[in-house]
Write a structure and sequence with these properties.
This protein is an all-alpha fold and 78 residues long. The protein has five helices and no strands.
């Protein structure tokens, strides 16, 4: 799993904390994330989306159900 996080850091300059990595890797039920503004919630959402698509073969249209989330995802990738 370090390969995934290393690529985030090297290619996109995304360096997650250990707590953020736990959220990205969370497998069970939906995960509620509460944090102060600027804590990296959106970054974690993008990293989790990428992780699910790349490692669990989740299709992007299954994960991104609303246009606003899709727009956010595409803007961050640019």
């Amino acid at each position: 799993m370090n390969i995934f996080f290393n690529e985030l850091k090297d290619k996109f300059n995304i360096n997650l904390t250990e707590q953020q990595k736990e959220i990205v890797l969370h497998k069970e039920k939906p995960c509620l994330v509460l944090a102060v503004p600027g804590a990296g919630k959106t970054t974690v959402l993008i990293a989790r989306t990428a992780y699910l698509i790349l490692n669990h073969k989740v299709l992007i249209h299954q994960y991104l159900q609303t246009k606003s989330i899709l727009d956010l995802f595409l803007n961050i990738l640019e």
